[in-house]
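Sample entry copied in:
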Amino acid sequence: MLIAVAADKGAPGVTTTAVALAAVWPRAVLLAECDPAGGDLVYRLPSESGDRLDPRRGLLSLAVAARRDLQPAQLWAHAQKLRGGLDVLLGVTTAEQGAGLEPLWGPVGSVLAGLPQADVIADCGRLGADGPYYDLLACAGAVVLVTRPTLGEVVRLRDRAQAVSLGVHRRTGRGTRLGVLVVADHRVFSRALAEVGQVLGRDSAASVLGGIAFEPRSAELLRGEWGGRLDKSLLIRTARDVAGQLAGRPAVAAASARGEAPARRPAPGPARRPAPGPARRAAPRPARHAAGRAGPAEPLADLPAAEPGGW
C-alpha cells in the first residue's frame, strides 16, 4: 500500500509527519522521498553507519531503472537504511531534478504501490496544480493532507483536496481515500479537529483523519538516535495512533478522529533490536526497523504541554 503525505501551502510539517509515521508503522515499511521540489533527508538523517546517505542512490537511480521493465521487488536495490533500521528511498535535491522526472511519476508510483510485503510512506511535499506529478498520487491507496488549524490553510487545503480528487478520478475512473491530518497543540486537539471538520464541510472530498502533536523538540530528536524519551513523546504517540488508523485499525481510527486519547493496547511489534546488516537485501521482506517498536499508548492528558517553537 502506498500512502502519500502532502500539503497545499506553507510548511505544516509534512516531512516530520512522514518520518514519524514510518518510524512507528506497524508493518514493514519504506519511507520514500517524493517531493518534486527537492527534499532534504540526505542532510537531515544519518545512514546506519552514521555517515551521510548517498544522494546518487534513490529516486534518481530508480527513475533511470523505471525506463526499463522495473519490477517492484527490485526497488530495494535503490533504498538505503537509516540509523535505527528504517529503510528510505532518497528523493531529488533540487526542483530542476524533479522537473526531469515528470514523465516518470506514474511508473514510479506504480512501482511504489506494488512493493511486495511492505507498505510505502511517501513524502510528497507541497501539491500544486494538476500535472504529471498527480500520476503518482493516482497510484496511492490514500492521500494524507497535512495542515495547521488556521482558517486560511484549511480553506486552501479544502480546494486542493477537490483538485486531487478530480485529478485522480480522471486518471483512474475512481475516487481516492483523502484524509486531513491536523498538526496542533495537544491541549486544543478536540477543538482543532472539530473546527477543521466544520470548515471542510460534509461535501468536502476529504475528511479529518486525526491529529499530530505539535512538538518541535521531539521533531528535532527524529533527526538522530531513537530513544525512550522520543518513544514517549506526544509526537510519536499521536503518530502511532494515525499509523494504526491508516494501516486498518478501526478502533483507533474512531478515537483519533474524535481527538480522544487512545485506549491502552499491547505493543504490536517486536522489541527493539540492532539493525540488520546489508544481507537483508536478499530477503523478500525487509527486517523491521528499530524505531518501529510501538509501545502501549497512555492518556494524552497526563503529559506536559508541547513547547512553543517552529517545526
